[in-house]
Amino acid sequence: MSSPDGGLREELARVGRSADVIARALEVVAVIEEVAAPLGIHPVLVGGMAVYVWTAREEFMTYDIDVVMEVPQTLDAELSALGFARVADGRHWRLEGTDVILEAPGARVDRDAVVDEIVLPSGRRAKVLSRLDVLLDRLAEFQAGGHEIVAQQTLVLLAGLSQEENAELDARALTRRVGAVLKAMRQLAENIDRGFPQPESDELHAIAREALRAEYSPSS
Fold it and tell me: What pLDDT, in 10s, does the model give residues 72-128?
């Protein structure tokens, strides 16, 4: 492993200035893996950047890199040696000389989560929450808030799933208590395919509220 205060830091600075947002995010996660793995910590890319990785849709582009990982003092020191400076809120780090923002919103992924590993041109490997798990997270987030951008992300992630993937999604949605909203979003996707207009914000909020009610009502 390269020294964090030597070649690895220089390479991270170079990667951080890359114009390819997906490649940059994956390489940043992979470099952090190099210093975190000896501590028994393995960062997993999640959140909006994971959506962008699986969809490559420009409207979902984000520059923040959300990773699930523990950040003990030893790893915080390694991040500092790599050129990251922790910002005031304590959950974000900025890579000096770049617009890369790293956030650690949690310490562990869900117990049943599937994590994919992507081999990069550099030879490094980056861990990313699987497409189905990203979709399950988006379903839960939409059900909780009914936000339009999350609905759009959900619809794109739903498109093109195989029969096997849909079967797995059905089973896992039940355990995550997002089965009702999954059914509603599939119906919405079908309606849009048939030429119906995109729903307005108030309609999306109504869909989310109804799904939440169905999922958590006493009879469910």
Answer: 999 999 999 999 999 877 789 999 989 899 999 999 999 899 999 999 999 999 999
- Residue 60 C-alpha from the chain's centroid: 11
CATH class of 7-129: alpha beta
Q: For the chain, which ranges sit under pLDDT 70?
A: 1-6, 219-220
Q: To the nearest 10°, the Cα dihedral for 62, 67, 68, 72?
A: -140
List all residues 6 or more positions away from 218 whose beta carbon is below 8 Å from its beta carbon: none
**Which amino acid is located at 139 in the chain?**
L
115 Cβ contact partners less than 8 Å away, ≥ 6 residues apart = 44, 109, 127, 128, 129, 130, 133
Dihedral angle, C-alpha 169, 175, 176, 178, nearest 10 °: 70
